[in-house]
Automatic annotation (TrEMBL):
GO terms for cellular component: cytoplasm. It comes from Prunella himalayana. One of its GO terms (biological process) is methylation. This is EFMT1 methyltransferase. InterPro entries: DNA_methylase_N6_adenine_CS (IPR002052), Efm5/EEF1AKMT1 (IPR019369), Mlase_EEF1AKMT1/ZCCHC4 (IPR041370), SAM-dependent_MTases_sf (IPR029063). It catalyses: L-lysyl-[protein] + 3 S-adenosyl-L-methionine = N(6),N(6),N(6)-trimethyl-L-lysyl-[protein] + 3 S-adenosyl-L-homocysteine + 3 H(+). It is found in: Cytoplasm. Keywords: Cytoplasm, Methyltransferase, Transferase. GO terms for molecular function: nucleic acid binding; protein-lysine N-methyltransferase activity. HAMAP family: Methyltr_EFM5.
């Protein structure tokens, strides 16, 4: 009887088991980093991706490039808003002491550890924003809508247009090119953003100003 019961237990393939072990090992290493001295809460990966929230962090190089572009576009003393783009926010915060300010609009409340710079944001309610977020008060808005759908882009676009003085840096799929132009008047750049884990969909950047991403 016992042998029969054992047969019913689903067995993981060796490939799946190895992948799972690798994942747990990575997780343990990250937890170890967090407890060791010198852990930086602003480093990319300090907060785990949550795929159920359609979260995919940029590679370090991409986040650095987008952060650098945002600082240049915002200008001295500029204000930068990151909508659903936490890895760019984290990279901007690594440049502490630079002459700009930044806030993060994000659905994931784990980012509330960033204090007053965190603003809870649900794209389904694009203008449900705190009173202190004044219209057209940011020199540049960087946005990465969580889903590749026109509805998500259209609603996020409402928030972007409300917040920006003019400059927009949008990161989304290549398939969204027409909708991005339609809702935000942005054009695709030559720069191709990369993620820390490869995505199935081709990803691109779009801007509505003369940027350093071409």
């Amino acid at each position: 009887k016992m042998d029969d019961d054992d047969d019913d237990i689903p067995q993981l393939s060796s490939h799946t088991l190895a992948a799972l072990q690798e994942f747990y090992l990575e997780q343990q290493q990250r937890e170890g980093m967090k407890t060791s001295q010198g852990f930086n809460q602003y480093s990319i990966g300090s907060i785990e991706e949550d795929w159920q929230l359609s979260q995919f962090w940029y590679s370090d190089e991409t986040a650095s490039c987008l952060a650098k572009e945002a600082v240049l576009a915002a200008g001295k003393g500029g204000r930068i808003a990151c909508i659903s783009a936490p890895s760019v926010y984290q990279k901007l915060k690594e440049q502490d002491g630079e002459d700009f300010s930044v806030c993060i609009l994000e659905y994931d409340r784990r980012f509330s550890l960033y204090g007053e710079e965190f603003i809870f944001y649900d794209y389904n309610h694009p203008l449900d924003l705190p009173e202190n977020l004044l219209p057209h008060s940011f020199d540049i808005v960087i946005a990465d809508p969580p889903y590749l759908s026109e509805e998500c882009l259209q609603k996020t676009a409402e928030t972007i247009k409300y917040l920006t003085k003019g400059k927009i840096l949008l990161c989304t799929g290549a398939v969204m090119e027409e909708q991005a132009a339609k809702h935000l008047g942005v054009k695709m750049c030559k720069f191709i953003p990369k993620h820390s884990r490869n995505l199935a969909n081709e990803f691109r950047c779009y801007v509505n100003y003369a940027s350093g991403l071409d």
